[in-house]
Amino acid sequence: MRQRFDVTGMTCSACSSHVEKSVRKLDGVTDVAVSLLQNSMSVEFDENIVTTSQIIQSVQDAGYGASLPLAATKTPQKESASALAASEQKAMKKRFWISFAFLVPLMYLAMYPMVAEWLGLPVPSFMHHTFHGPENGVTFAFTQFLLLLPILYVNRKYFQAGFKALWRRSPNMDSLIAIGSSAAVVYGIYAIFRIGYAVGHGDLATASHYTMDIYFESAGTILTLITLGKYLEARSKGRTSEAIEKLMNLAPKTATILRDGKEVEVPVDEVQVGDTVVIRPGQSIPVDGVVIEGSSSVDQSMLTGESIPVEKKEGGKVVAATINKTGYFQFKAEKVGSDTTLSQIIELVEEASASKAPISKLADKISGIFVPIVILIAILSAVVWLIAGRDIAFALSIAIAVLVISCPCALGLATPVAIMVGTGKGAQHGILIKSAEALETVHAISAVVLDKTGTVTEGKPAVTDILPAEGIDSDWLLTVAASLERSSEHPLAETIASKTEEKQLAPLPVSDFEAISGRGIRAQINGVSYFAGNLALMQENGIPLADWAERAETLAGEGKTPLYFAGNSKLLGLIAVTDMVKPTSKEAIAQLKSMGLSVTMLTGDNKATAEAIRKQMGIDRVIAEVLPQDKEREIRRLQEEGHRVVMVGDGINDAPALARADVGIAIGAGTDIAIESADIVLMKSDLADVVTAIQLGKATIRNIKQNLFWAFFYNTLGIPLAAGTLIPLLNIKLDPMFAAAAMSLSSIFVVTNALRLKFFKPKLRKERSV
């Protein structure tokens, strides 16, 4: 069986990896997928061998929390997930501002006297009398310590999680933060005691020396900058839970059913299989079922992606959350509760999101090796210098310098700063990038899957061809069509009416209107019988067609829907309607293919329409008449073939596929659900922006790798210097303050390098008016 668990305490990909390894060790566990974004875990296991309690215990033994979630159908659980994400973001923001508020006076106190002395600037009198000089060393140091305490307190989670991970031999980013900050704090406290002792014994030279060796500002800077990065990351959390919550809100909360011949309104949870459900115009359908009385057209676009409402009559299937347009009908409930199509889509979104393995940050991967090596070097350096005859203060200073220069300021900033600049640049191009994972993944994709309706096409039908018969004026044909369709409930009636209004044609009065199920309509205009509908209607009424049937087939082969119109026993002509292709779609698809990507189109529409679009657009492969779960299955098939997949869609029916894909891209004009489920949103609803998003992803990940390289370059270059390797040769010792300066320099370099992304410009793309 497969069971989902809520997991708490994870802060980075090293944590999720450790949770996964701990659970995999259990006998009977066949598969584990941990989602850092959702703070959840999906486990496939044999319940005869291992229990859920044992799985929870293994997570707790690893140092994290785990519990079984509430039932997936219960809204409070989803609301609590969204509230949890919002609470986390609020807490991180509060931590940052408190840290920043105390860091400013701490930095001023610690750095200004030194900078003023170097630059020859005057020192304010209150600074001079209270803090300046070795005789005020204790006041100077202890005041910094007091300013640091609030920063340490609000960021205590780094120490709790970092040292716990270190204790369990699975160091992560928190471990680096905790060690670096603690090293600076411990040495600073040691310096306060040395200053106090030196001043008390009149040794102002020693007091002056240790006054320069206080690194409280380094600890404060490390914690504040890392918290800023964590806050930026927290802003992207909660996306999936919000999407699921909106999915659940699609279905109506009540349903009208027949009981003992009377209509009764009941909560949708009380609808049972076999109940007769009553649906009136404009109502949402509460459960899945089959029509047993009446007929109507139903808007299924939120589930199937079809832009044209579907006619339903006796025997027709209806699904929950779709919207009845104009007719009245009754249907027999067949699937209720968790068995409905909507519930299955919700489950697919949850499973696909949870199974999306968190991207292992390069920094977290390296930190597992980097941290123990740095600690070992620091200890060995101190021991070597003690053996060489140096005092404890000197050896401790060496060890602290090694640890301080390895502090992860630049390491922690390398990814969030580049992501922040990259996402800002994306917004300038109308591309909303919702997560760092998206940018880190999109650069490596090899396949693009496109939904048709609303993505490649406009998503709304339009009249494309008006073909009058010989001797018939096109305006007359359109006027007759609009007059007939005005009284019709046919899904395309609105489209023809809009075309008539555009041409400022006035419809004629009709009488004896009759809708012929599955065929079309019949009505009288000025005492003459007119027909509008399909080929079968024309043939049944003996309308001579000549070669018009072949012309209609040609239109259908182009992905259009042909409608026949006849009057006075002769054909008036054809009007073709289709969902128009967006102007930039063909160019965008060509650009994607030129980048070496395979392009597949998925659609719920018929094969003829899909194939016509494929030929027109030059798409590699098309799959038609697919259901939402089929789209998700196709994404999974491509992934199993080794592809990194981008899914581009706009409908609710695309939500499972968007969640399953390595990167989900939603068209901005689409539904909120698709936008919430996606990693990237195209604000301009333009496929050409998919190309820009991929190029921006490549540029950003390249920038991140450069940042990480330089962060490690500065640190690793300084570690041998901090360890004192140049003392025997050149008598050069890297003071911990210079080690902290090197660490700060690497941070400045990283931020400056990330700012280069502001000059990003998309390539392989023609200029388009916006």
Can you walk me through this structure?
The chain has 770 residues and is α+β, with helices and mostly antiparallel strands. It contains 29 helices and 26 strands. It is elongated, with a radius of gyration of 34 Å. The model is unreliable at 71-80, 236-241, 352-360 and 765-770 (pLDDT under 50).
In short:
The strands form five sheets. A seven-stranded mixed β-sheet has the order 14-26-25-24-15-22-23, with helices on both faces. The radius of gyration is 34 Å and the shape is elongated.
Describe the secondary-structure layout.
Layout: E1 2-8, H1 13-24, E2 29-35, E3 40-45, H2 52-61, E4 65-67, H3 75-119, H4 125-130, H5 137-154, H6 156-167, H7 173-200, H8 204-211, H9 216-234, H10 239-248, E5 254-259, E6 262-267, E7 276-279, E8 288-294, E9 296-299, H11 301-304, E10 310-312, E11 317-318, E12 323-324, E13 329-335, H12 341-355, H13 362-387, H14 392-405, H15 409-428, E14 431-433, H16 436-442, E15 447-451, H17 452-456, E16 457-468, H18 474-486, H19 493-502, E17 511-516, E18 520-525, E19 528-533, H20 535-540, H21 548-557, E20 561-567, E21 570-581, H22 585-594, E22 598-602, H23 607-617, E23 621-623, H24 628-640, E24 645-649, H25 655-660, E25 663-667, H26 672-677, E26 680-682, H27 688-722, H28 727-730, H29 736-755
Parallel strand pairs: 15-22, 15-24, 22-23, 24-25, 25-26
Antiparallel strand pairs: 1-3, 1-4, 2-3, 5-6, 5-7, 7-13, 8-11, 8-13, 9-10, 9-12, 14-26, 16-21, 17-18, 18-19, 19-20, 20-21
Helix pairs in contact: 3-5, 3-9, 3-10, 5-7, 5-8, 5-9, 6-7, 7-8, 7-9, 7-14, 9-15, 10-12, 13-14, 14-27, 14-29, 15-27, 15-29, 16-27, 18-19, 22-27, 27-29
